[in-house]
Design a protein that fits this description.
With 452 residues, the chain is of the alpha+beta class. Among the domains are: 166 residues, no CATH class; 101 residues, no CATH class; 39 residues. The chain is built from 10 helices and 19 strands. A 5-stranded antiparallel beta sheet has the order 7-6-5-4-10, with helices on one face. It has a 3-stranded antiparallel beta sheet with strand order 3-9-8. A 3-stranded antiparallel beta sheet has the order 13-12-16, with no helix packed on it. The radius of gyration is 36 Å and the shape is elongated.
């Protein structure tokens, strides 16, 4: 939000927050700038992790008949970057309406290379080799950051990881990472473990920029810093250097870092006295079309995730398309690898709340590993505790205000009974004084008369 400015009669302007440390205005501003964003950040983290775990279970299973097309989520990366970093084994199959496998491609990831049914491949040849091995039964394509698999000839597409060496990148299997069979969908990236390394291509054009705002402990703006994407070879290392530059970047306030999972995070040198937010973001990543703040969850982007999800439209219209069965890779040739009586996928969806999940720090919570149900309970309890504490403070303040008003009225107000008593007393005293004066005059006149 922009600063609320005070303009004095002399024309001097200064931020309201520099002079307001308590009261209703301060409370409302803290609600807007601190409490509400913190709650939104925790809700966003909870919703994102819940959606991710539902998608983990759904991607490990398939409906029967299997869907004719699997369209992945927007990864925010090129296919080469997206495929780099996988390990383990996954299998893509074409199955008929009865669940019998018609063609399959076993992908074994090994560092920067892979084999597909034993044929050597790498990220640049992945699509061509996969399509050749599937023999037209399934066609793979990649556009706008999304991987898509299309079955042909009435076939559906089902994917399963190897039981002993499942595919894995950043804790997610192949289908899960690409979001090929997601139950809960969104149009922008909602988990920020990108898998990018310092040598990876970031995909943003040189000269594109985003503006950071740094605020002090009171919430008043300290400075806006605009950082441009540097010219060069386009690596994440170069981008990180530009972001952390002490002159043209944010280096005087803190530093960005890229962890092993490819998550970009900012840490202020003095977190208690400095907060960072995004004012504008004019960057666009190729080929996904997402901005830098959307790709990495910078600023308040992570707090907006809760409103970005929706259950897949085709499943809303037909719950029979839920992925409730799991592909049996050891099924004999000619026998169904998918069965209507298999409910393992449904059980996995039902157990999502019991899964231990690594939560990131958000909204004042330090994060850590706990179940989704426990995190939701902690969050609800914290909101309830804050609400109860706010109510108690409000009642205490109201009682103090009432007592102060009473004391002020007691000191400034008029008591009619007391004033009537005082007036009667003063009248009696006046009458007594008048009689005393009259008596003194009479005595004085008598004395004068005697002298004469």
């Amino acid at each position: 939000f922009s600063d609320i400015m005070i303009t004095e009669p002399s024309g001097t302007r200064w931020p309201l927050l520099d002079g307001v440390s308590s009261g209703q205005i301060r409370g409302l501003i803290e609600m807007r700038d601190v409490d509400a964003p913190a709650a939104a950040a925790r809700l966003g983290e909870l919703t994102a992790k819940l959606a991710d775990e539902l998608n983990r279970a759904h991607n490990a299973s398939s409906s029967l008949p299997a869907p004719a097309t699997l369209t992945g989520r927007n990864t925010g990366q090129s296919l080469q970057n997206a495929l780099t970093g996988f390990a383990g084994t996954t299998t893509i199959t074409a199955v008929n309406a009865a669940g019998v496998v018609q063609a399959s491609a076993q992908i074994v990831f090994s560092g920067a290379t892979m084999t597909i049914n034993g044929a050597a491949a790498d990220p640049s040849t992945f699509l061509s080799v996969l399509n050749a091995q599937m023999g037209g039964a399934v066609t793979a394509s990649f556009a706008d950051g999304r991987l898509q698999l299309d079955g042909a000839g009435g076939n559906g597409v089902a994917i399963a990881d190897d039981a002993t060496s499942p595919s894995n990148k950043g804790g997610r299997g192949f289908s899960h990472w690409f979001g090929l069979n997601d139950l809960v969908s969104t149009i922008t990236p909602t988990f920020y473990e990108t898998g990018l390394t310092l040598s990876s291509q970031h995909g943003f054009d040189a000269g594109e920029s985003l503006t950071f705002r740094f605020a002090g402990e009171s919430g008043a703006r300290q400075r806006d810093v605009t950082v441009s994407v540097p010219a060069g070879t386009g690596t994440m290392g170069e981008l990180l250097g530009a972001l952390n530059d002490p002159i043209t970047g944010v280096g005087r306030y803190g530093a960005f870092s890229l962890d092993a999972a490819g998550k970009l995070a900012f840490k202020a040198y003095d977190p208690a006295a400095t907060t960072m937010s995004i004012v504008t973001d004019a960057t666009t990543q190729t080929p996904s079309g997402v901005s830098m703040s959307q790709l990495f969850g910078l600023g308040a982007t992570g707090a907006t995730r809760a409103g970005a999800y929706s259950v897949r439209s085709d499943i809303q219209q037909d719950p029979g398309k839920l992925a409730l069965a799991q592909l049996n890779l050891s099924a004999a040739a000619g026998t169904p690898a998918l069965s209507k009586s298999d409910g393992r996928g449904g059980l996995a969806l039902g157990d999502v709340g019991k899964r231990n999940v690594a939560f990131a720090a958000a909204g004042g919570s330090s994060g850590g590993t706990k179940t989704l149900s426990a995190y939701a309970a902690d969050f609800a309890g914290e909101i309830g505790g804050k609400a109860a504490a706010a109510k108690t403070r409000s009642e205490t303040a109201a009682a103090l205000s009432k007592e102060a008003d009473s004391r002020r009225a007691s000191a400034q107000g008029v008591n009619m009974d007391e004033e009537l008593v005082n007036m009667t007393t003063f009248q009696q005293a006046y009458n007594a004084s008048a009689r005393l004066i009259q008596a003194s005059k009479d005595m004085y006149d008598v004395l004068i008369g005697i002298v004469r």
